[in-house]
Amino acid sequence: PGNYRTQLWDKQSESFLPSTPGLGMHVEVKDPDSKVVLSRQYGSEGRFTFTSHTPGEHQICLHSNSTRMALFAGGKLRVHLDIQVGEHTNNYPEIAAKDKLTELQLRARQLLDQVEQIQKEQNYQRVRRGL
């Protein structure tokens, strides 16, 4: 998952201020093979998630579709981006509530996620070493 929020430059105060909700942001994520795994429109702040099955470097591109606001702000837009990676990003209590899982089913889901994460990390290491 990734969280972001934007700020626009305010000429009067000469500082960055929180963006208005009307600002549109487009988020696009590409995997190492340049395949688009996420392409979606959001607001001035948002949360996005994506799952990739390809190990390696991913590209995350955020751009504003609101040229009027960017011009109004003197063309200055600041983006605060927080990205979380790996198995620890899953909110298991939320998953259990949403999917109505028993404690045993939830534990099985956690273990399967851990195995999948280990496999991804091993694949990533193989790619890095060129094996």
TrEMBL record:
InterPro entries: Emp24-like, GOLD_dom. It comes from Corythaeola cristata (Great blue turaco). This is TMED4 protein. Belongs to the EMP24/GP25L family. It holds the Pfam family EMP24_GP25L. The keyword Cell wall biogenesis/degradation does not apply. It is found in: Endoplasmic reticulum membrane; Membrane. Keywords: Endoplasmic reticulum, Membrane, Signal, Transmembrane, Transmembrane helix. One of its GO terms (cellular component) is endoplasmic reticulum membrane. The lineage of its organism: Eukaryota, Metazoa, Chordata, Craniata, Vertebrata.
